[in-house]
Fold these 2 entries.
Entry 1:
Amino acid sequence: MSATQHITAITLDESSIKPRSVEIEHERHVAMNDLIEWNHFALKDAEGPYELRLSTAENRFAFSVTSKTLTRPYNFFISLAPFRSLIRDYFLICESYFDAVKTGNLPRIEAIDMSRRGLHNEGSELLSSLLTDKVVIDSETSRRLFTLICVLHLK
């Protein structure tokens, strides 16, 4: 990771999201911590390091990026529409996964987890493709951002 091409702080607009289950809150916490610890995020037009704020507004995900090299926040949006069914399916699979973990049925847990990872990969690839003209991110950063987008999408 470049010394400047990364996120050093991330916040979610708490007014954009409803109370979450313990499992979802854990996923959010892990994604945020992992994202801060290791990420590659580079705006095409400004050097980092960056601080990122995620929120929802008017059926869009809002990104607000600040850095010492920017005179004002760099704001951009991506449509929620391409993510709707993917996020719905992702949360259904996550619920099944959390239920399976409680039963301890290892073959079922592994099968559901493979489906969950597949949907997560699909979501992170979609996110990367929608951000490609604004920011350069690696696949792990995209995966963690997708997790946070899912949390923001909960209504």
Note: The two ends are 35 Å apart (CA to CA).
Entry 2:
Amino acid sequence: MRKNKSLPLTLSGKIWIYPGESASWHFFTVPQKESAGIRNTYGPLARGWGSFPVQVALGETVWTTSIFPDRSSGTYLLPLKAAVRKKEGVFDGDTITVQITILVDG
């Protein structure tokens, strides 16, 4: 099957570090309204752990990854790779704007 793209969502929010043993996992939280829209529109197409493949644009950097549901907040979490953060000069606590495009089979 080939991958189709949804319309991109432009979202803003803060980068945060996952609390735990390793302070290296940085995330962006997809806001609740947009998370609900993703779940309602694409829910049956979710992959393992309820994840969705996405294409992300942050500044000049575009990459493919997955978003994962956070059951406690009802949102999706976008992991931010170290290489992307370094290239774009963004750090924990920074407010960023990303474009997220859901990649769906079809």
Note: The chain has one domain: 3-105.
